[in-house]
Amino acid sequence: MSRAVQFVQINASTKQDRHVVTAQVKDAIVAAGGWVTGFQQFSNVSVCIQFEMEAACMARLFERLEGLELQLSEASRRLPGELTAKPETELMGTFQLTFFHSDPDERMVIPAVPG
Predict the structure, then answer these.
(1) Is 71 helix (H, G, I), strand (E, B) or coil?
(2) pLDDT tens, residue by residue, 3-58
(3) Helix (H) or strand (E) run with residue 115 in it
(4) Burial 21-52 (b: 16+ CB within 10 A, else e)
(5) DSSP code of 88?
(6) Residue 110 burial (CB < 10 Å; 0-12/13-18/19+)?
(7) 69 vs 19, 21, 22, CA distance in Å?
(8) How confident is the model at residue 100, as a pLDDT?
């Protein structure tokens, strides 16, 4: 019997150091029972962490996020309650972090592709 899969989006913003917060969120996902499956950086403004976990783990994730200085979107704050009725559901999701700071955009050097 196949399990239901649901896509979820978590959106948060912070004024904290992006390297520290990104590591803290990754650690929170893993400690809650999830897996980080991908990572995309958008200059020094935002990062998107792709993850997978069972819906039953979502409450633990949010407990671990409470100690971090994150401003979660309203829709994100509702997720744990919305998923309690479907604990067996597998989640595929993104955790989008937006960083507020006064640093200039970070330029990424992209190597030329030969040929």
Answers:
(1) strand
(2) 789 999 999 999 999 899 999 999 999 999 999 999 998 878 899 999 999 999 99
(3) none
(4) bbebbbebbeebebebeeeeeeebeebbbebb
(5) T
(6) exposed
(7) 13, 8, 12
(8) 86
Closest CA relative to residue 72, chosen from 102, 19, 6, 28: 28
Q: What is the pLDDT of residues 54-87, one digit of tens each?
A: 999 999 999 999 989 899 999 999 998 888 888 8
Beta pairing class for 35-42 and 5-14 = unpaired
> Amino acid identity, residue 2?
S
In the numeric block, which tokens belong to residue 58?
A: 């979502």
Give the CA angle between residues 110, 23, 109 to the nearest 5°. 10
Distance CA 56, CA 104 (A): 40
> Are 90 and 54 within 8 A, CB to CB?
yes
Q: What residues have CB less than 8 Å from 80, skipping those under 6 apart?
A: 58, 59, 61, 62
